[in-house]
Design goal:
By secondary structure, this protein is mainly alpha-helical. It has one domain: lambda repressor-like DNA-binding domains (434 Repressor (Amino-terminal Domain), Orthogonal Bundle), CATH 1.10.260. Helix content is about 75%, strand content about 0%. The chain is built from six helices and no strands. GO terms for molecular function: DNA binding. Keywords: Coiled coil. Pfam families: HTH_3 (PF01381). This is HTH cro/C1-type domain-containing protein.
Length: about 120
């Protein structure tokens, strides 16, 4: 799981540097998180939480697809930012869950074949 977290943490660091000049306090305040919590994620001590993903996407206007998967447009523009972000997050969460189900099914099949 840590392999999938590292790219998200890198994008988080990129946002921190590019939009906030590396100022973790300002960044933390903008996404509604404590500075120590954000620091732990950026330093790799903790995985990126759903709360950070929500803050970056909903409050800063980043695309959930870009932030989580590194695909698509970086920012969502226009008046429907919140709706587009929520739909994108739902689609991404669906894909993550679908992937987990497929892996579980493959493991079950392998287990059944061992008999």
């Amino acid at each position: 799981m840590s392999n999938s977290i590292e790219p998200i943490a890198k994008r988080l660091r990129d946002i921190l540097l590019n939009e906030f000049g590396g100022n973790q306090s300002a960044f933390s305040k903008a996404i509604g998180m404590s500075q120590p919590s954000v620091s732990r994620v950026i330093n790799g001590d903790r995985p990126v939480s759903q709360r950070i993903i929500d803050g970056v996407c909903k409050k800063l206007g980043y695309s959930a697809d870009w932030f989580i998967n590194g695909k698509g447009a970086k920012k969502v523009k226009g008046a429907d930012v919140k709706l587009v972000t929520e739909l994108s997050m739902l689609r991404t969460e669906y894909n993550i869950l679908l992937n987990r189900v497929e892996r579980l099914e493959a493991r079950m099949k392998a287990y059944e074949e061992r008999g």
